[in-house]
Amino acid sequence: MNEKVIIISGASRGIGRATALLLAQNGANVVITARNVIELKEVEAEGQGRIVAVPGDVSSEVDMQRVVQTALDRFGRIDAVVNNAGYGVFKNVEDITVDEWDELMNTNVKGTFLLTKAALPTLKAQQSGHIVVVASDVAKRTFAGGALYTASKYAQEAFMGALRKEVRPFRIKVTGVYSGLVDSHFHAKGHGHATSSHYLQSEDMAESMLFILSRPAHVVIDEFMVHPIQQEY
Asked: What is the residue range of the signal peptide feature (predicted)?
């Protein structure tokens, strides 16, 4: 990871935060973005000079272009983009509001598209790079009450599949990360609740990201599925 330049969205807490810190500890230069400015700056402060915080909303094209440009201005290149920003709404279909649908899709799907789109011209010009999408195991399955969230993850899955075919001729890797249950703020009961003691930790996911991103240039991990041992799949 020595001096690699990596952009991570949704990096103010949870998987994004843990990944940013671990990559920085391993020698990467990390540009992070999220809407929570205070938490984002706290992660930057912990990065010992290797983390640059750029507050922004992944659903804003202008914001994502600014994140990418900041990485280029500071470091002159981009080696990887980790699309991690996302959240869940879990309701029966008739209880989902139009605003909830639009807002979640804007973050989970449009956000992945916009950050990836902003970085692609640079990655293609370099003839190298890595795009990671933190999806979920529910990109492969559905459940009652999960229509909105699973639809967003299936959309990410389709986006990755087409993108992978587009960019491999440019030697750009695309990796889908499909996690099971993770003990984070994603869940309604919050991080550290007793009911999630057997879940994966954000640090487990960060270790997975480090492994994926540190493979040699000729190796691409197309899909990476990870679960806590107590979760059925």
From this structure: none
| Whether residue 195 has pLDDT greater than 90 | no
Whether 187 shows a pLDDT value over 60: the answer reads no
Element (H, E) at 125: helix 111-126
Say which CATH architecture domain 5-226 belongs to.
3-Layer(aba) Sandwich (3.40)
Task: Find how far residue 17's CA is from the centre of its chain.
Answer: 10
Structure tokens at 38: 């205070």
Residue at 211: amino acid letter: F
Tell me, rounded to whole angstroms, the distance of Cα 55 from its chain centroid. 15
Q: Which of 27, 175, 186 is nearest to 104 (CA)?
A: 186
CA distance 163 to 37: 31
pLDDT of residue 188: 54
Residue 25 in tokens = 């500890």
Catalytic residues: 149
| CA-only gyration radius of the chain, Å | 17
Contact predicate 30/24, CB 8 Å? yes
Residue 170 in tokens? 């440019």
Confidence of residue 230 (pLDDT cuts 50, 70, 90): confident
pTM above 0.85, yes or no: yes
Residue 86 DSSP symbol: -
Tell me what pLDDT residue 139 has: 87
